[in-house]
Amino acid sequence: MVKKYIGIFLCIFTFSQHLILSISNNTDQKIAVYTIPRSGSHLLMKLITELTGKNPRAKLRVNNWSSSYIFRHPYGGIIAPELFQDNFKIITIFRDPRDQLISSINFSLKNRPDAKQIVQKVLTSALINHAEAFQRHKGPGGMEKVIKLNDMYVPFLAWQNNPQIYITRFENLVGPQGGGTEKKQIEEIKKVAQFLEIQITQERIIEIARNFFGNTRTFRTGQINRWKDSFTKEHNKLCKLSCGKTLIALGYEKDMNW
């Protein structure tokens, strides 16, 4: 009987240690999450909360860094200068701009009964003039002045060589339930933890990955390559004009022949 209780105690203690290791390191570390709308923002925030035990705050001024981190959609890719001066750990997430656009359109049309009938029309409009389309259909805020998707991503591309910023990918983070792989998901969770200087066990990483998909405020389907279900040949042509360079720069395409 005594051995049985000792065994139970050791199991509980070991599990508790796994949790503690993932939230007790650098509790006062200042963290900021800056993302493009509909790129996987809430997926990333869910991960940061799992790793640190902290919750997102929209304000730049946070009184208690041990329990909070900043989350914002930056206008024009501009990060508040004081974040660089104060040694913040800044994280963003990139997603295939075509999937990001489809996700934005579906989000903006979610309460319309004719959504399925007009999605193609809105997609055409957004690829021609993103700002005009999203002002008309009340899309996600923060990018109202963007005409072409290239304009949206150019400021963020400049972040790629900044050691104070870590860039994750939706495709790596979403896991097998979203069309990715478990291996890439586990590797990416580990990389984010390393960037935040958090010691974490492999068991805890696997636990986070298994309970990671969905269940966030703006979650819809969370799938990779959903754009292929909506884009026509005409949309492909318009998309190459709108964000062809960005797709190549981000590594989603090798050239314009797609």
Task: Summarize the SSE layout with pairings.
Layout: H1 2-23, E1 31-34, H2 41-52, E2 55-57, E3 68-72, H3 81-85, E4 89-94, H4 97-108, H5 115-128, H6 130-137, H7 149-157, E5 165-169, H8 170-173, H9 182-195, H10 202-210, H11 233-249
Parallel strand pairs: 1-3, 1-4, 2-3, 4-5
Helix pairs in contact: 4-5, 5-6, 5-11, 7-11, 9-10
Q: Please, could you describe this protein's structure?
A:
This protein has 258 residues and is an alpha/beta fold. The protein has one domain (18-249): P-loop containing nucleotide triphosphate hydrolases (Rossmann fold, 3-Layer(aba) Sandwich). The protein contains 11 helices and 5 strands; from the N terminus they run H-E-H-E-E-H-E-H-H-H-H-E-H-H-H-H. Strands 2-3-1-4-5 form a 5-stranded parallel β-sheet. Helix 4 (97-108) crosses helix 5, helix 7 packs parallel to helix 11 and helix 9 (182-195) crosses helix 10. Residues 2-24 have low confidence and may be disordered.
List keywords for this structure.
258 residues, alpha/beta, Rossmann fold, 5-stranded parallel β-sheet, 11 helices, 5 strands, 49% helix, disordered N terminus
